Amino acid sequence: MAATPVFTLEMIDLHCHLLPGIDDGAPDLQTALDMARMAADDGITDLACTPHIFPGMFENDTASIKQAVAELQTRLDAAGIKLRLSWGADAHVSPQLLDRLRDGSVPRLNDSRYFLLEPPHHVAPPRFEEFVFGILAAGYVPVITHPERLTWIEDHYETFCRLAESGAWMQITAGSLTGRFGDDARYWGERMLDEGRVHLLATDAHGSDRRPPLLAEGRAAAARWVGKEEAGHLTLTRPRGILQDTPPEELPPLPQPGARQKTGWLSRLFRRG
Questions:
Q1: CA atoms lying within 13 Å on the CB side of residue 26
Q2: What CATH number should be reported for the domain holding residue 174?
Q3: Which of 15, 101, 136, 138 is the least crowded, having the fewest Cβ atoms under 10 Å away?
Q4: Residue 1 placed within a domain
Q5: Range of the domain at 248
Q6: What is the C-alpha to C-alpha distance for residues 149 and 140, in angstroms, rounded to an integer?
Q7: What three-state secondary structure class fits 215?
Q8: Under a CB-based contact definition with an 8 Å cutoff, are residues 86 and 48 in contact?
């Protein structure tokens, strides 16, 4: 199915810690409302509330998340904030994850086949590829969150390349492309974009001051690497397809490597050096 080229002010954010008081995101309702206003002002029309599910630390589940989303949507509507909420979770790698996807206690994005999968930040999990392949074989599409920010990406970069080629999706944080997370995250984010390995941009917002819900700046940065049309796919076409549970093969394919001008890799090397 051919997708209509798109680069509008409308954007969809599928990774945001907006729900108040249930993880390390918005600590209270006022912060959540402030974040929601910022997102709407930035051009985000739809936002998935994706709190952490981390056994032993953040014991959220589908029922509690959906209830919290419904309550927050009521608050947004009453405050006149034009933002449509859906649900999901930032699900950490765990041995029970596939079983919990099957029994429905870990939510998928808007009840689609897609869900956010968060690897450990500092340590590569053992048999990670095998773990992801098992999820793919079960019919789910894991969206691996912020690989560019993982401290172990340099030693395991080919792992993410193979996973993307095998059907896993990659989500880069918008702020990584603007330097909010340092030079290393920017380097890996730009490299993955330039090599055609990024499916989505999202904010991964956790507050109104620190890590705010700003997506437009990332879209603009992405456009400099892969063009306006692909930047629109990263922030609207593919996210909308996820919310509608569109099969991956019916969504815009990733661009060919080297979509940016040939000097792109030089700028990465100088910044990293």
A1: 23
A2: 3.20.20.140
A3: 138
A4: no
A5: 11-272
A6: 24
A7: coil
A8: yes
